[in-house]
Structure formats: structure tokens, C-alpha cells
């Protein structure tokens, strides 16, 4: 290589080192890009709700990292916990923060209390002015108050008005204030054209609420569940209609008054709300209709077999996957084509501590430890959920399985199961961390992949579980030259405080997209890494912890630069 080429590579290396010295400032643009991708400019988006009745809930900082890894840019919180908001501020997400029902009386009876609440819970996390978006996307005052706490209805609207006034006084009138209502306030919703609001609430509460929402450009928030509508229809609503699955034209619901065809229950429920609002002559700030924001919708993945037969993983997968596609395709409803409402899926994690029917604890997309409850199929849905599960799954040891049972299953996999367990032997790349679950996870996944991910191949007497998160921890060999430089700068990571992860930490699971092929070069085996768009985010690491933002940026920069740097073996000499 000539001196000119070598000079270019030296310049590239110096530029790389300069960028690394500024790594903390590089984190902000990534968050901004993520937020922009969530449809913050008026496009419909899909968010998730986050409940906290979860055993061993992730810490706020880990939760923020998890959201970033999954490319989730919109969340709904049921309170305004400062620790959670502080952590989410760096995640790139925007949050609807909630006012719990038990705080309504104080806020509704005292404007000063509302102003203090805004100063303490909103101002630290809002943009610098009303035109600069911050973490807080909206405020949800109470939750389903007409049915959950009807005694608080007299103070609900005053609380909303006081909070809106406090935000306006702080130059934050761009943050809307509303209250999530249950769909049960809409009566006679099928067919949609004859729907109307509960008469006992319409004039006394809903009409004044709609007028306030129209004057402040705030949405009507609704919790909308086709699951419950189907369950309560006594067989009138077909399951496929509730799951967004296509039906023959003869089975589609047709509104006899408008002759509009409804291919799914979700759109029919939305149009029922539109009709009920129109019947009260409530209009938006520009004279148009008050927009609707679906603050909860979803499907349970498990329930009582007799009382809740449709609460299954397959149905939950079908509903939420099809919902995501439906929203991102932006079709709108038959009554309002093109005017697609944004939605929040209920919920991110299974809240295993919730009382009530079995299904109450099984609405989540993920278990509390971050592994998926079921496999969503969301390819092409705008990047929502980085762990696109259409064709990539792994088998690992279940967190709550008995260790002796895990050991026995691993012994079977590496013995009669004929799994290649060389990588977890002493001195090999997957030996560390040296514990039963880590070794078993590698053995389980090796068997699972060798069987073509066939049904039952991840069972292992109940101690195996399927996940869509790549458990690998890997640094490509072509980056190893950089270890000398990294060591000179004493690069620190969360899980290895004083050195770069090397040797035993370079473990690639058999199903990982990081492992594309193995070739021979100069008589030695060289693993070539290949990173997909989904892997490019800060992927959640089950075995060794989460990847830090700095480590992700470092790998990204290296993957761009080392291709050129390593083309000349004499460069480093």
C-alpha cells in the first residue's frame, strides 16, 4: 500500500479516536432519531403502556435501555414517578404521564396544588418552550373514572382544567391534558351509526369535557378492547373479525344505515365513538372533529380455559401484530378513511401481581425479565419492536427453572441429544460465565437450531424457553487490533469495569445473525460478523447484561472503519 493510502487510514483512525473522546455527545442524536421515527410529527404511531405490578420489575435505567433496544418511542405511564421520568429522558421515548385516581380530589379542588404538581412532575422533563418537544407527550388525568371511581367525577374536569391552566402558564400549552375513558360510556355501538354516549354522563360530564378538549386541542382518550366486545357478544362477533383477520364479504359487518363494511371490530368501535361525539355537536379546535387517542388496547395471552377460552398466545400474537400493521398502514376507518388513530398496546410486561381473573396477569408483550411472552410478527411495521420475531428465535434456560433440572437437561442435550457442546468447555469462547444456566442456554440453543426450531425442540422437560432476543455477546475478530488502543484509554463498561471484554466474552449463539459464515484465512478460522438493522440497536443481552450506549457506538464506528484498516496487514507494524 502506498504512503497516500496509509495516510488516509491514519487520518481515519485519528478521526475515530476523536469521535470516541466525544462519545457522550453522540448519544443524543440517536435518541432524537428514535423519537422522530415514532411518528411525533402527527403520523399515527404505536406505543405501549407500562404497569408496575411486576415481580422484579426492571430498574428505571434498565427499562429505559430496554425501550431503546426495542425501538419503542411512545409509552404510557400510570403515574409520574421522577425516577422513571429521569431515566426515560435519555431513552428517546415520549411518555404520557398519569395522575392516579386517588390524587384527583387534591388537584380538582386546588389550582395551586395543580400548579405545584406541574412544577414538580412536568417542568423538569418538558422542552424548554412550547415548541420544543420534551419527554412529556401528554397528561392522562385519572383512568376510567366513570366506572372505576364514579365518586370522583365532580372533580375530574376541574382537575383537567387546572392542570391545563398550569401548563399554559408555564408556556407548555402544547402538552395536552385529557382523561382515558372506558369504551362502556358508548352505548349501542353496533352498528356504529346508532351509537351514543351514556345519557347519565352525556350532558353533565362528557359534553363539557369535549368542549374543553376542543378548546385546548387535546384528544379524547379511550381504552378500547375488541377482546371484551367479542367476549360479551355471545357469539355474534366472529373471532377473526376481532383479530383483524380477513372474512368473506358475506360475513363482514355492514352498517345498515351507512352501508359501510367493517372488516374488523377495532374500526367499528372507533366509528361508534366518532358518531357518539358527533351527536353531541362537539368539534375540534379548528372546527373539525375532536381527535381520538386509544390509550389502551390489547389481548391477553393466557386465561382460565373455561371462562376465558380466547385468551391464548396465538390470538394475542394475531391481534397485536395485526394491530401494529393496521396502524402503520394508516387506513383510518370506513367512516374516516385516512384519519388513523394512534394506539397504546396494553401492555409491555405481564403484571403477575395483579389480582382478578387469570387473564389480568397476562396482557404483556414481555415477561418481567425482558423475554417475549409470544412471538410478534411485525415485519415492515415501521421498525416498532427491534426484535422482529418473524424468522429469528433462540432457546435458553428458563430463569425460574430448578438448577438441577437445568443441569439434567443440559447433560441430555450434550449427550444423547448429540449437541456440539465444545464451545462451553474450559478455554473455549462460551465457557464464561461459568454457570449452569449460561452453559445450558448455549446447549439448548444448539439443539434447537439443529432441529430447525421444530415444535417441542425447546421444551427440555419444561426448563427451556423460546426468546427472540439474541443472547450472544460478541466482538468481531477484525476489531481485536483495537484492543491495544482501548486498553490505553482504559475504556470502561458497566459489566467489566477496567478492561475491554475479550476471549471468553466473545460467544456467538448458533442462531445469531452475528454468525454469518466461517472461512479459512492463512490457515486459521476467521468468523465474519454481519449485523442487521435490528441488531444495530442496543440489543438486550440476557447472559451478560445490557449493552451500554457507548459500547454500541464504539462497535458501530469500528464496523465502518476496520474494513479499510485491516486490508493492509502491515499497517500496525
Automatic annotation (TrEMBL):
Its main location: membrane. GO terms for molecular function: glucan endo-1,3-beta-D-glucosidase activity. It is found in: Cell membrane. Residues 393-482 form the X8 domain. Residues 1-25 form the signal peptide. SMART domains: X8. PROSITE patterns: GLYCOSYL_HYDROL_F17 (PS00587). It catalyses: Hydrolysis of (1->3)-beta-D-glucosidic linkages in (1->3)-beta-D-glucans. It is a lipid-anchor; GPI-anchor. InterPro entries: GH, Glyco_hydro_17, Glyco_hydro_17_plant, X8. GO terms for biological process: carbohydrate metabolic process; defense response. Its EC number is 3.2.1.39. The keyword Hydrolase applies. Keywords: Cell membrane, Disulfide bond, Glycoprotein, Glycosidase, GPI-anchor, Hydrolase, Lipoprotein, Membrane, Plant defense, Signal. GO terms for cellular component: plasma membrane; plasmodesma; side of membrane. Pfam families: Glyco_hydro_17, X8. Belongs to the glycosyl hydrolase 17 family. This is glucan endo-1,3-beta-D-glucosidase. It comes from Oryza meridionalis.
Amino acid at each position: 500500500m502506498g504512503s497516500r493510502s496509509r495516510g488516509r487510514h491514519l487520518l481515519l483512525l485519528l478521526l475515530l479516536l476523536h469521535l470516541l473522546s466525544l462519545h457522550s455527545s453522540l448519544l443524543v442524536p440517536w435518541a432524537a432519531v428514535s423519537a422522530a421515527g415514532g411518528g411525533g410529527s402527527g403520523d399515527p404511531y404505536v406505543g405501549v403502556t407500562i404497569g408496575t405490578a411486576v415481580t422484579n420489575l426492571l430498574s428505571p435505567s434498565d427499562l429505559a435501555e430496554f425501550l431503546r433496544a426495542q425501538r419503542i418511542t411512545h409509552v404510557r405511564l400510570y403515574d409520574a414517578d421522577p425516577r422513571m421520568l429521569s431515566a426515560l429522558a435519555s431513552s428517546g421515548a415520549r411518555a404520557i404521564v398519569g395522575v392516579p385516581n386517588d390524587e384527583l380530589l387534591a388537584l380538582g379542588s386546588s389550582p395551586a396544588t395543580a400548579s405545584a404538581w406541574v412544577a414538580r412532575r412536568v417542568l423538569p422533563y418538558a422542552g424548554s418552550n412550547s415548541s420544543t418537544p420534551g419527554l412529556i407527550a401528554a397528561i392522562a388525568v385519572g383512568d376510567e373514572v366513570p366506572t372505576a371511581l364514579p365518586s370522583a367525577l365532580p372533580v375530574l374536569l376541574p382537575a383537567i382544567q387546572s392542570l391545563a391552566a398550569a401548563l399554559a402558564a408555564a408556556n407548555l400549552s402544547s402538552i395536552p391534558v385529557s382523561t382515558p375513558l372506558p369504551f362502556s360510556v358508548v352505548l349501542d355501538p353496533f352498528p356504529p351509526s346508532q351509537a351514543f354516549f351514556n345519557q347519565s354522563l352525556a350532558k353533565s360530564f362528557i359534553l363539557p369535557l369535549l368542549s374543553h378538549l376542543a378548546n385546548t386541542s387535546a384528544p379524547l382518550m379511550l381504552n378500547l378492547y375488541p377482546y371484551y366486545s367479542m367476549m360479551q357478544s355471545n357469539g355474534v362477533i366472529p373471532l377473526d373479525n376481532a383479530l383483524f383477520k380477513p372474512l368473506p364479504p358475506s360475513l363482514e359487518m355492514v352498517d345498515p344505515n351507512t352501508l359501510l363494511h367493517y372488516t374488523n371490530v377495532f374500526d367499528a368501535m372507533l366509528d361508534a365513538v366518532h358518531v357518539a361525539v358527533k351527536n353531541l355537536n362537539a368539534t375540534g379546535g379548528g372546527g373539525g372533529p375532536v381527535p381520538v387517542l386509544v390509550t389502551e388496547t390489547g389481548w391477553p395471552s393466557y386465561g382460565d380455559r373455561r371462562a376465558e377460552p380466547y385468551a391464548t398466545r396465538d390470538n394475542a400474537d394475531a391481534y397485536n401484530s395485526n394491530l401494529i400493521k393496521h396502524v402503520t398502514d394508516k387506513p383510518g376507518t370506513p367512516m374516516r378513511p385516512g384519519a388513523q388513530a394512534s394506539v397504546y398496546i396494553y401492555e409491555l410486561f405481564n403484571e403477575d401481581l395483579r389480582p382478578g381473573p387469570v387473564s389480568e396477569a397476562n396482557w404483556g408483550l414481555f415477561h418481567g425479565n425482558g423475554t417475549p411472552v409470544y412471538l410478534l410478527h411485525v415485519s415492515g411495521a415501521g421498525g416498532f419492536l427491534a426484535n422482529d420475531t418473524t424468522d429469528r428465535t433462540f432457546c435458553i434456560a428458563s430463569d425460574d427453572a430448578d438448577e438441577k433440572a437445568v443441569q439434567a437437561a443440559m447433560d441430555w442435550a450434550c449427550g444423547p441429544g448429540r449437541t456440539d457442546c465444545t464451545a462451553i468447555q474450559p478455554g473455549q469462547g462460551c465457557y464464561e460465565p461459568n454457570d449452569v444456566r449460561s452453559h445450558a442456554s448455549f446447549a439448548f440453543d444448539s439443539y434447537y437450531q439443529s432441529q430447525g426450531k421444530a415444535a417441542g425442540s425447546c421444551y427440555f422437560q419444561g426448563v427451556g424457553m423460546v426468546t427472540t432476543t439474541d443472547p450472544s455477546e460478541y466482538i468481531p475478530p477484525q476489531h481485536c487490533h483495537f484492543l491495544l488502543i482501548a486498553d490505553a484509554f482504559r475504556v470502561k463498561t458497566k459489566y467489566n469495569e477496567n478492561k475491554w471484554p475479550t476471549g471468553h466474552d466473545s460467544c456467538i449463539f448458533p442462531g445469531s445473525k452475528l454468525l454469518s459464515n466461517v472461512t479459512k484465512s492463512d490457515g486459521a478460522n476467521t468468523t465474519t460478523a454481519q449485523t442487521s438493522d435490528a441488531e444495530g440497536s442496543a440489543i438486550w443481552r440476557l447472559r451478560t447484561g445490557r449493552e451500554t450506549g457507548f459500547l454500541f457506538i464504539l462497535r458501530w464506528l469500528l464496523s465502518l472503519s476496520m474494513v479499510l484498516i485491516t486490508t493492509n496487514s502491515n499497517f500496525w507494524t
